[in-house]
Known about the structure:
The complex is a heterodimer.
Chain A: H1 6-16, H2 18-56, E1 60-64, H3 68-76, E2 85-86, H4 88-94, E3 99-109, E4 121-125, H5 133-141, E5 149-152, E6 164-167, E7 170-177, E8 188-192, H6 193-206, E9 217-218, E10 220-225, H7 231-241, E11 245-249, H8 250-293, H9 295-303, H10 308-340, H11 342-349, H12 358-389, H13 392-400
Parallel strand pairs in A: 4-8, 5-7
Antiparallel strand pairs in A: 1-10, 1-11, 2-9, 3-4, 3-10, 5-8, 6-7
Helix pairs in contact in A: 2-8, 2-10, 2-12, 8-12, 9-13, 10-11, 10-12
Chain B: H1 8-23, E1 45-46, E2 52-53, H2 56-78, H3 84-108, H4 118-143, H5 145-149
Antiparallel strand pairs in B: 1-2
Helix pairs in contact in B: 1-2, 1-4, 2-3, 3-4
Amino acid sequence: MAKLSYGQFLWRNLKRRSFRNVATVLTFAVVVCSVLIASFLTEGTSNSTRAGMTRLGADLLVVPQEYASNADAIIITGKPSTFFMNTTEMTKLQAVPGVQRVAPQTFIATLSASCCALPTQLIAFNSTMDFTVTPWLDQELGRPLEKDEVILGYQIKGTDVGQPIIFYGHQFKVAGILQPTGTGVDQSVFVRDSDAIVMARESVKVAWQPIEMNPGQISAILVQLEPGADVQQVSADIAAAAPEVSVITSNHLARKIDAQLASTVGALYLTAGAVTLISLPLIATVSTLVVNERRREIGLYRMMGAKKGFVFNALLAEALILAMVGALIGLVSAAAIVIIFNNTITVSLGIPFLWPGLDAVLLQTWWVMLLTVLLGALSALYPAMMAARSDPYESIRAGQK
Amino acid sequence: MEFSKKMVIPAIVLMLLGVLVAVGPWTFAPVCEVHTAENPNGLWVITAANKTLPMPCGYTARAEIGIGAATVIVGGMMLFATAIGSIISLAAVGAMMGGATIALPAALTKTCALSSHTCNTLTAPFLWVMGIVLILFGAALIVYRKKLMK
């Protein structure tokens, strides 16, 4: 007779109760899947917000009060807008204590472009005052942006570096493509303000719909604070100095995104919690019933010389295998759902998303998997102890009844 | 040719999946050029010469018609599969069709660049799911081929 290895012994035991084991595996899979989706979404949105604000390169973004939600939408989801305010606000901001420097930007929603078919956000920056796009240009391009050159957000892919791109009938040339941030910045096109003014002037003659933009009009002021300056204090001082503007901080954006994400993440954690609360006692009860069913078998193992520890370890190992398989299925499902439905989720919830780094993903996955395996072990602990303590003779007799 | 009664259900499932792959991108999981409430005229690429062209997702939707039709044919052939070898071959082709269903939006003809387009929020996820279902279905037919023959 061929000898059974420990693994084969466990596998045969699991195979004999396939329906119960599949149900147990699926329960663990649902718990892990729900928790990991919620966790990936939370980490992905905060990673994206960080990347977006870093790309903007400013501590504060000051916009006209009535267009604050438009500016939020440009950064968070890339929904294009055109709005203006006067440059006089810049002078007020420069005088606020804690403000190191300011730079204007102009937001223009384009008409359908050959690259994108849907309107795209043009962001015109001032080459001499800018401190957001220029450092990137110095680092990646090694030179400033030349006349009629544009920098594309990561998602504007209808064209490539060196290729022409037309906005409002004005032809530009692509000088570079930014790294992904997962925010609306990926759907924006950066252009020099002097070129934007020329484009606006020409649009009256060559575009289907001209831009109504006058020299001296801007949409937003990017603010860089002095080292050590308190963001909240400076925001309050700006609001007092220029009551007609709104101040957008990364905290404000994060709070807004959290609010949009809260119900979905809450529902996912609630599902995981409810499934855990309902299923764990159920799994423990079913395991106890199965141990009762297997009393004769367990008694025979003991009669043949199996020690208490062997019985305990075997039952615990079976539970751990089920929990681990369930956790793996849950992990694969969660990753597949977030990868496949990434755009559907972010667009329907109005949130930005950028996959967190591999280390963060692995860390989250490790904790969730560990917790699940521990829960699996916990649910099998009592039945395994009960089986190990049972008297072999009594077990065989009880199992024969 | 001999008709295989036992293969009726797998064949119908495969044909149904093929029809969904072909029809989905033009109806309930629309690509950008399909007329919707948001875009009554659909979205098209307009070139500098004022020529209207389909967006990348349009080519994906057109290619998926071919993949869907081929899957329906494979399903039809399965109705007459009486030998294990034929079931394995047809199931493998069905699974490969699943791979092609995914490869078109993911790597070959692709979808539009902007994540907010319906081809990225609806069509691509739908095609991914259909592709995975086709691959798993083909694999299941191969694994359970002996049971199907009993």
